[in-house]
Specification:
The complex is a heterodimer.
Chain A (H helix, E strand, L loop, with lengths): L6 E3 L5 E3 L1 E2 L2 E2 L33 E2 L2 H7 L7 E4 L9 H11 L5 E5 L8 H7 L3 E4 L5 H8 L7 E3 L2 H9 L7 E6 L1 E2 L5 E2 L14 H6 L2 E6 L19 E4 L6 H4 L10 H16 L8 E4 L3 H17 L3 E5 L4 H8 L3 E6 L5 H9 L3 E3 L2 H4 L14 E4 L3 E3 L4 E2 L15 H4 L4 E5 L3 E2 L2 E2 L1 E2 L14 E4 L2 E4 L4 H6 L10 H11 L13 E6 L5 E6 L3
Helix pairs in contact in A: 8-9
Chain B lengths: L12 E4 L9 E7 L5 E7 L2 H18 L5 E7 L4 H14 L27 E6 L16 E5 L9 H14 L6 E5 L5 H9 L6 E4 L5 H17 L7 E6 L2 H5 L1 H5 L7 E4 L1 H8 L11 H13 L3 E6 L6 H14 L3 E4 L5 H7 L4 H19 L5 E3 L2 E3 L1 H16 L4
Parallel strand pairs in B: 3-4, 5-6, 5-12, 6-7, 7-8, 8-9, 9-10, 10-11, 11-12
Antiparallel strand pairs in B: 1-2, 2-4, 13-14
Helix pairs in contact in B: 1-2, 2-3, 4-5, 10-11, 12-13
Classes of the chains: A alpha/beta, B alpha/beta.
C-alpha cells in the first residue's frame, strides 16, 4: 500500500483519495452531476473458428480452464455471490490460480462472505493483491486494520455494472458458478441441487470479461432451458462435484423477526405506505430479506388485502413473503434481483410472473434509465443515519467494515426511500450528528422509521402533508435523537479513526463518495 | 451466567450477566482489598463510545457506597446507566460492603398518580432481572407494566432484581403505563417493599394472598414507608388469589384495605392447588373466577383475570379475553407485547353496545333537562340500573378512545 495518499474534499465535504490502486479518481460532485460522454467498453472480437463446432467447451478442471484463458500475474479475476455464504467456486478458482503460481491478482467479487476468509491467506501469500468488492467479517477486519496491499473499493450492485461497462474495472477472467449449465456455456440459477434463483450479478462479467469460465455441478445436454447466461459469451465449461453448500445458499425458511420492537417498526412502515397514499392500485415497492423487511411485507399484505389493493410489481430479493403476494393475487409480477429462500427459488423456476433481473435493468446509473427510480417505495436498513438524513450502511459506528453496499445506494432513487431502523442498538444510538461513513446522501433519503417514531425529511413536504391527520407518531429527527441520547446516558464518544485510507465508497456514478479509514 | 447471592462479607462477589446471548446487561466481579484504591477493568462492545463513562459511573457508585479499595472487573453487553448502577451495587452488597447505603440511578420526574378506577385491560409482565425488556415496554401500549420480583426471578437473584427494579422505577420512562410491582410472598415481600416503595410505584401486586391479614400487613408497611419517604400519592394494592382458600376468602380480602384497586387470580397455582388440569376453555376455574368477580364488585373494586400462557395461540387468546369480559373481568395479564392489541379489543365493548349505550345516555340527559323522572327510549321505559350501566360503558369507551 502506498504510504502517502493525496486527499481531496468532495461535494459532501468528505476527504477522499485522488488516486486508488494506481487509478485517478473523480471526487463526488453531487447527485446527478457527473455524466461522462465516452463510449462503453467492449470485450475482444472472437471467431467461431476458435470454438468447437459441436458446442462442447468442457475442459477437465478449473486449473486447465484458467491456464487456457492465459491467466498471469496482476490480472483481474471475478466471481458472483448468488451462492452467498455457501459458495465454493470463488475460493476454488483463487486456489487453482495459486497452484498455477500467479501473483498479485485483483479479486473482484460482486460480494464476499465470511466463508471466503481463505482469501486472507491468499493475500498473505501474495496471490491476491487486493479485493474490490464488499468485505465484512474477517475480510472486513483484515482490510480496516490496514493489512491489504491495495485499497478496497466498495460499489453498489449498479455501481459494479457501471464500473465494468465504463471501463473503470477491466475483468480479465470471469469464473461463474452455475447451478445448471450445458456444455456450450448457457447457464441458469433456478434449477439443480445448488439452485440459487437469479444469476443477474454475473451478467456483466459474462458480457464484458475477456474470458469467461462457467463452473457447474449440474451439467445438462444442450440446451440449458431457461438460460440467463448466454453460452456465446463463454470460453470454457468446467464440471465439478459441488459448487456450493445448499444449506447456506438459500435459507430453508426466512424468519420474520419475533422482536416486538422490530415488529413495531415493520408495522409503522406498512401503515406509513398506506396512510401516505403510496399503497394504491398499480403501485410498486421493494424490500429486502432482513427481519424487519419481511415483517413489513407481511403487514402490508394484510393491509393490501383489506383495502383491495394490488401492486403492479414488487422488487426482490425475493422470499416466501413476496411469493405469497404473487400467489395471492396481490401483485402482477416479482422482478427479482436475488432469491433468498426455497420458496423464492421454487417460484422463479416455475412461475413465469416471477422474473429474474440484473443490475443492468434494475440499478445501473449510466444507462437509459433503470427500474430503481420507477419503484414507488423502498424499505432499507442502515447502521447509522444522521440529522440531515445521510445514511451509512457499510461501517459500524467505530469505523470497521460491516456490510457491502448491495443495491442500497441504487434503491435510493425510489419515489419514497424509507430507512427502517431501531433507534439504538446495544446502547449505540442509530441517529447521529454525522454518519461515520457516508454511503447515501440525505437528499435521497425521505423517511426514517424507528420504534420510537417516524421522521420525515423536511425536503419532502409532500410526504409531511400526505400523513397529516394520520395516527402515526411523526416526529422531528432531532427529537427522536434527543430521546435516545437521554436513554443511552448521553452522546456516544466519537471513535478515533486513523488517517490512512483503506477503502473507498463509490457513488452510483463512479465518483468517490467517502473513505474508510484504518482502525486499530 | 447466574451467580449466587450467598457470599461472605468482605469476600469476592459477582452480579449481573454476560455472554453471547445477553443484551443490555453488565457482569461485575468485585474483589475487596485493604488498599490500592479502585482498580476497574472493562470489556465492552460499546467501549469505543461509552467505555470512559461506564468506568466513571462504576467509580461513582462504589464511592457512594463508601468503598475505597477494590478490584472490579466489568463485562458489559451494552447495559444502560440504570442497569450499570444496579449491577455494581448488587455486587458490592454481595461482597458485604456498603450495607445500609444506596447508590440509586438518576431520577426522572414521577408521572401523574394513578386513579383507583383507571383502565386496567392489559398488564405486561417484565421479569425483574431482564433489563433488556424494560426500556421499550411502554411503546407497545399496555395499560400497565409489572416489574416482577416473584416467580420469574430465581431465588438466588432476588437481591439483584430488587435493586434493578428500584433503579428502573427511577430511570425508565413508562409513559402512560401504570407502574406495577409484583413483590414476593411475605416475609420476603417486606424486604421488596423497603427497596421499592420509596420510588412510589403506582400499584403493588401481592401474590398468593389467602387472608385479609396478609393484605393488612402489607398495607401497614406501605403506609409507614410512605410517611418515612414523604410520599403523598396513592400506591394501590392488587392481591392475587391463587389457591382454593384464597378464593373462599375473596370477600374478606376484597374489603381488607381502602387501598385496594382490584382483585386478580393466578390460575397456574390455583389449578395446581385444586389438582385439576388447566385448559384453554377454563371450565375448571369457572367457579373461582366468577366468585372473585362477585367479591370484587361487591367491594367496589375491579376484577382482573389471569394471563393466557400460549403466545402463539391468538385465536385462543381472543376467545379467552372475550369470555373473560363476559364474566365481568375488566382486564387480564399479558406475557408478550403481541398480546396487547388483541386483549384491548377483547375488553372493549362492541360498536353495537356503544351505540345503544349512547342512545340511552342521550335519552337520560334529555329527561334530566326536561325534569322528567322517567327515562324512555322510543316506546320503552329505561330502568335506572340500565342507565347507570350505559353511563359507565360510555365513560369506559371514551377512555379507550372508542366513543
Amino acid at each position: 500500500m502506498t504510504d502517502r495518499v493525496e486527499l481531496a474534499q468532495n461535494a459532501a465535504g468528505r476527504m477522499v483519495p485522488a488516486m486508488v490502486n494506481g487509478k485517478p479518481q473523480i471526487p463526488y460532485i453531487g447527485v446527478g452531476k457527473y455524466q461522462p460522454r465516452g463510449r462503453k467498453q467492449a470485450p475482444p472480437i472472437r471467431s467461431n473458428k476458435d470454438f468447437p463446432e459441436n458446442g462442447d467447451k468442457r475442459v477437465p478442471d478449473l486449473q486447465t480452464a484458467l491456464r487456457n484463458c492465459g491467466l498471469r500475474d496482476g490480472m483481474v479475476l471475478s466471481n458472483h455471490h448468488h451462492l452467498r455464504d455457501g459458495d465454493r467456486v470463488a475460493l476454488m478458482a483463487l486456489e487453482a490460480a495459486a497452484r498455477l503460481g500467479v501473483k498479485n491478482l485483483m479479486w473482484f467479487p460482486s460480494a464476499s462472505f465470511p466463508s471466503q476468509q481463505g482469501a486472507i491467506d491468499l493475500m498473505q501469500k501474495g496471490v491476491i493483491h487486493h479485493i474490490e468488492g464488499s468485505m465484512n467479517g474477517p475480510l472486513g477486519d483484515y482490510c480496516t486494520q490496514g493489512n491489504m496491499r491495495g485499497m478496497g473499493v466498495l460499489r453498489s450492485h449498479g455501481g459494479r455494472w457501471q464500473a465494468i461497462q465504463d471501463g473503470e474495472v477491466h475483468i480479465d477472467i470471469a469464473v461463474i458458478a452455475a447451478p445448471t449449465a450445458d456444455p456450450f456455456g448457457n447457464a441458469d440459477g433456478s434449477h439443480g441441487t445448488s439452485a440459487c434463483g437469479s444469476l443477474g450479478f454475473a451478467l456483466a462479467d459474462s458480457m464484458y470479461a475477456d474470458h469467461v469460465i462457467v463452473v457447474t455441478d449440474n451439467l445438462v445436454p444442450f440446451p440449458c432451458i431457461p438460460w440467463q447466461i448466454q453460452g456465446n459469451n463463454v470460453d470454457y465449461v468446467v464440471e465439478v462435484d459441488s459448487i456450493g453448500d445448499p444449506a447456506k445458499i438459500v435459507s430453508g425458511t426466512t424468519q420474520i423477526t419475533r422482536s416486538p420492537d422490530r415488529l413495531r417498526i415493520a408495522e409503522f412502515v406498512a401503515r406509513f405506505l398506506r396512510d401516505a397514499g403510496i399503497m394504491k392500485n398499480g403501485f410498486s415497492f421493494q424490500a429486502g430479506a432482513g427481519g424487519i423487511a419481511l415483517a413489513f411485507v407481511d403487514y402490508l399484505r394484510r393491509m393490501m388485502k383489506d383495502a383491495g389493493v394490488k401492486a403492479r410489481f414488487v422488487r426482490g430479493g425475493s422470499t416466501k413473503y413476496l411469493v405469497e403476494l404473487l400467489q395471492g393475487g396481490l401483485t402482477d409480477y416479482i422482478l427479482d434481483g436475488q432469491t433468498f429462500d426455497l420458496d423464492g427459488v421454487k417460484s422463479i423456476a416455475n412461475d413465469p410472473r416471477h422474473v429474474p433481473t440484473s443490475p443492468f435493468t434494475s440499478y445501473n446509473y449510466h444507462g437509459k434509465g433503470s427500474f430503481a427510480s420507477m419503484v414507488d417505495a423502498v424499505v432499507l436498513g442502515a447502521t447509522e443515519v444522521d440529522v440531515n438524513f445521510n445514511g451509512n450502511v457499510v461501517t459500524h459506528s467505530d469505523g470497521r467494515l460491516l456490510h457491502g453496499i448491495g443495491g442500497w445506494q441504487n434503491c435510493l432513487a425510489a419515489g419514497c426511500t424509507i430507512l427502517a431502523v431501531p433507534s439504538f442498538r446495544d446502547r449505540i444510538p442509530v441517529i447521529v450528528d454525522q454518519v461515520t461513513t457516508l454511503t447515501g446522501p440525505g437528499e435521497l433519503i425521505d423517511v426514517v422509521v424507528t420504534e420510537r417514531g417516524i421522521a420525515i425529511n423536511p425536503r419532502r413536504q409532500d410526504l409531511l402533508d400526505a400523513v397529516k391527520g394520520s395516527s402515526l407518531p411523526i416526529r422531528p429527527i432531532q427529537d427522536i435523537k434527543a430521546e435516545v441520547e437521554r436513554i443511552c446516558g448521553g452522546k456516544p464518544a466519537r471513535p478515533k479513526l486513523g488517517d490512512r485510507p483503506v477503502a473507498v465508497v463509490k457513488w452510483v456514478d463512479g465518483t468517490v463518495l467517502d473513505t474508510v479509514w484504518q482502525v486499530g | 451466567m447466574t451467580v449466587s447471592a450467598e457470599t461472605k462479607p468482605g469476600r469476592s462477589a459477582e452480579a449481573g450477566h454476560w455472554g453471547k446471548d445477553i443484551r443490555s446487561d453488565l457482569h461485575v466481579a468485585l474483589e475487596p482489598r485493604d488498599r490500592g484504591g479502585l482498580e476497574i477493568t472493562l470489556e465492552s462492545r460499546v467501549a469505543a463510545y461509552y467505555g470512559d463513562s461506564i468506568v466513571a459511573q462504576t467509580r461513582q457508585v462504589l464511592e457512594a457506597l463508601g468503598i475505597k479499595h477494590a478490584r472490579v472487573s466489568l463485562h458489559d453487553e451494552g447495559a444502560l446507566p440504570f442497569v450499570i448502577s444496579a449491577r455494581v451495587e448488587t455486587a458490592a452488597k454481595r461482597a458485604g460492603l456498603g450495607a445500609g447505603q444506596k447508590s440509586p440511578s438518576d431520577k426522572l420526574p414521577l408521572p401523574q398518580p394513578s386513579a383507583r378506577d383507571r383502565l386496567r385491560r392489559s398488564r405486561l409482565y417484565l421479569p425483574g432481572t431482564e433489563p433488556k425488556y424494560f426500556i421499550n415496554a411502554a411503546l407497545h401500549g399496555p395499560d400497565a407494566i409489572i416489574l416482577d420480583l416473584e416467580d420469574s426471578v430465581h431465588h438466588a437473584e432476588k437481591d439483584a432484581a430488587r435493586i434493578l427494579v428500584r433503579n428502573t422505577l427511577r430511570a425508565v420512562d413508562f409513559g402512560a403505563c401504570e407502574r406495577m410491582v409484583r413483590i414476593n410472598q411475605l416475609p420476603l415481600g417486606l424486604e421488596d417493599l423497603a427497596e421499592i416503595i420509596p420510588e412510589a410505584p403506582d400499584l403493588v401486586l401481592l401474590p398468593k394472598t389467602e387472608n385479609p391479614q396478609q393484605v393488612a400487613e402489607v398495607d401497614r408497611m406501605i403506609g409507614e414507608l410512605k410517611v418515612r419517604n414523604k410520599i403523598d400519592r396513592p400506591i394501590w394494592l392488587m392481591p392475587i388469589l391463587e389457591s382454593a382458600l384464597g378464593i373462599e376468602n375473596a370477600t374478606a380480602i376484597a374489603n381488607a384495605s381502602p387501598n385496594l384497586a382490584a382483585l386478580t387470580i393466578g390460575l397456574e397455582d390455583y389449578t395446581a392447588d385444586m389438582g385439576v388440569v388447566k385448559t384453554v376453555e377454563g371450565r375448571e376455574s369457572l367457579y373461582a373466577r366468577t366468585r372473585l368477580v362477585n367479591a370484587a364488585k361487591a367491594a367496589g373494586i375491579q376484577a382482573i383475570d389471569s394471563v393466557f400462557g400460549d403466545v402463539g395461540d391468538m385465536d385462543g387468546l381472543r376467545r379467552w379475553g372475550e369470555n373473560s369480559r363476559a364474566l365481568g373481568f375488566e382486564g387480564m395479564g399479558c406475557i408478550h407485547p403481541t398480546q396487547i392489541p388483541l386483549i384491548h379489543e377483547a375488553f372493549a365493548p362492541s360498536q353495537a353496545e356503544i351505540e345503544k349505550a349512547l342512545k340511552i345516555v342521550a335519552a337520560f340527559e334529555d329527561a334530566q333537562q326536561r325534569g322528567l323522572g322517567v327515562v324512555s327510549l322510543g316506546s320503552k321505559m329505561i330502568d335506572p340500573p340500565v342507565v347507570q350501566r350505559a353511563l359507565k360503558l360510555v365513560a369506559r369507551a371514551k377512555q379507550m378512545g372508542k366513543a
